[in-house]
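Weekly puzzle thread! Below is a chain. First person to post its structure in token form gets bragging rights.
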Amino acid sequence: MTAGTQIGDCMLKLSLKQGQYINIGDNIRVVYVGGSGGHGRLMIDAPKEIPIVRSNIEENPERRRETYYPEEKISAEAQKKIQRILWEERHKGEAEN
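Winning reply:
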């Protein structure tokens, strides 16, 4: 599996093995969970306010929009609780060392 992020003319290209992940900033984690036959499966842990849209090469923007169903907004208090839980989980190993 190869993961990439495009910024202008640059692209970061990574090869991941099953179970490996990349962190994007402090609050996004992309985990490669496996794949076969040219298909890869990813799990994405990101705040709800960050839109994540799967893209295939669909020329019609109206059809692209049909494949994305945003979830309802959650309160700022709930978002802070979730961020705190994720932060604690990410730093568990550091506290044990």
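Puzzle host: Confirmed. Bonus trivia for everyone else. The first strand starts at residue 2 and ends at 7.
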